[in-house]
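User: Can you fold this complex?
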Amino acid sequence: MSTPPRRPRPTVGLALAGTRPGLGPLEAEVLEHLWNRGRALTVRHVQLAFPALAYTTLMTTLDRLYRKGLLERRRRGRAFDYEPRLTRAELVGELVSGHVTDLLAAAGASTAVLSTLVRAVGRRDAALLDELDALVQAERTRLGRSEE
Amino acid sequence: MSSAVTLGLVVLAVFGLASLGLSGLLAIAWRGRLAQLGLSSAELLALRLLPTGGGALVALTVALPAFLLYEPAQEIEAVGPVLLSLAALALVTLAAALVRAGRAQRSAGRLFRDCGRSARLLLTGATPVEVLDLEEPIVAVVGGWRQRIIASRRVVAACSDDEFRQVIAHEAAHVSARDNLKLLAQLGCPDVLAWLPTGRSLAARWRAAAEREADETAAGPDRQRRIALAAALIKVARLSRRAGSDLPTLSLSVAVDDVAGRVRALLEPSPPARRPLRLWGPVAAALLLPALSVPFYGLVHEGIELLVALGR
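Assistant: Here's the predicted assembly.
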């Protein structure tokens, strides 16, 4: 019995092409096409939208997108059906999340242009946060009483 | 070596020497009494920019005119290793600053662009906020010249309307204070301070002061708003603490003492009074330096000649 191919997750550094570093222009176009069609497509089906391109070029492109973790694929006879693993919004969300993680990591060394409300807090500080919370509650009560 | 090249090397070397000297003096003063003073973010920023600004001022308004006036035209002069080393130091610090600032601007720009595509816009009063589905419980201003306020959905969900309004008022205060540009200016300072503990300490103190000032601008003297912001700070800190267990890279930037200080400051019965900036002395000295140095151009040129010949 053949084992199904491992599905890699998108890497954090990936982003969409053009303004989307990490994907080539053709990869981005193919991905956009799959998003627009909204269903699983074989290489042959994708080629209908890119008639100028060779079948093998599109097969390589789809395979590359699959290896980058951006597409799912299922065997259908001798061919594969490809469909996006994430919606456009989900993918961009993952990318932004990756950028934020990178920036926050860099902000620790003061190398990012990012003002954050609260920077990361250590695990040991739960008790202090409880104490601060109690202060806030007491202040709220005091303010409530004085307004009455 | 042509006189134009010598002039370039002299300007660079004087900049390197002045900036190195000022960085050293600042480091000594910081370890002495300066770090204990309650300085505002503007004062801390001025201190951080002092080595670069002072170095540029001395090189361009003192050394350059003195060299142009007193150096015999077309004189071909061999340059010693000390001047070359100082010029090289200036070039290295310049290159490193450009890389630092460029990298920060690029990564922030990427985030700025991607946020625009994926965010849901939320209007809180007059301030547009982009709400994102992020793992990190973040509320932040991103971008350098153009700025956006982003917030993760987790923070929006955790805060009450009143608390979230104060959070956004806090970020809006950063936007109007142009704090990200000030941060970029610090990253782009071509001096050795960036590699010294004093530089890191100054940057951390500036961040802390900028946060406290944004808190004060956002909440003002209104007790209710101050309590709402304090409560929001604690909520976001709690969320950050949970996220921190999955993000070990964040564990460096611990700021709970800062959160504690900010919460306590917000709960103080009377908000701290704003005091005038203590920047007039240094600004006046900077403005007077070019004029005061004119009678000493001859002496300055002799010093430059000594520097050029040193070790030759």
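The beta strands of chain B are 120-124, 127-132, 139-142, 148-152. Residues 243-257 of chain B have pLDDT under 50 and may be disordered.
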